Amino acid sequence: MFDQDTFGDRLKSLRSREEKSPEEIAKLLELSTDQLHKLENGSLGASLDFLVKLANYFQVSTDYLLGLTDIPHLEQGASD
Question: Which of 2, 55, 63, 65 has a C-alpha 20 to 30 A away from that of 75?
């Protein structure tokens, strides 16, 4: 089941891994800094389109962002 807190924690962790400020990531993702903070603290949900955008930017699976798996990357050919 989707857990907004897990989603927020993973988003924050991925941002930290990139060593980018909230302002930099917000600008890259076309968000306000306030929206990014709300996503990271679990008080704002994400649309499907935005979830895909995040997954593509951070090169992780949507399942990882949603907390459905602890494996950030899909194995090559896993969907074949």
Answer: 2
